[in-house]
Specification:
Layout (H helix, E strand, L loop, with lengths): L8 E7 L2 H11 L5 H5 L9 E5 L1 E2 L17 E2 L7 H6 L6 E9 L4 E5 L8 E8 L4 E7 L2 E5 L5 E5 L4 E6 L5 E8 L6
Antiparallel strand pairs: 1-10, 2-5, 3-4, 5-12, 6-11, 7-10, 7-12, 8-9, 8-11
Length: 184
Amino acid sequence: MNKHDLPNFKEMPWSVDTRKLMSCFQQFKNTFDPVSNSYGAEFFSDNYEQMTITKMTSNNKIRGKIDERNYTELLPEFKGSYIEEVLNNFKSPYTRIRFVVKKPGSFILPHMDYDATYSVRYFIPIKTNNWAFTAVERNDEIETRNLKEGKVYFVNVGFKHSAWNFGNDDDIRLIVSVNGQDDL
């Protein structure tokens, strides 16, 4: 299906253990994602952070570092972890996986990533607040959601989308990109 055939958001019929994901995050939170420093930095506020969980597979050179399909290898420190257990629940093979931390006042400006015909993205909030939002714009209409902890959401990044945190607490989520639409 192309992006026009898919919803802006879809809550998936499963959930995750936020305590276990937060434990993984706490263990590795001092790493950062060099891709976000090279590509699209102009879209992020200074207090928007990403931590990579997959690395670029050396034999994949699809459109270079910017293509999420190149990130198919789980970093060794996450093998055997609860993150790997969550990833194995997806039918489609995972690609670029990362934690995103939106500190209070942080944002990512509206932008478009890629069409959903080959890769789709899921957001899994593990710590959030009532003032953290994600939005998708389609046909000049903006749909805004406050995503709930422990739920798994498809987000249609083939349309312009953004996220922000107006709350007093961090908004932490696991972002899972997969190669295919088998889970939809």
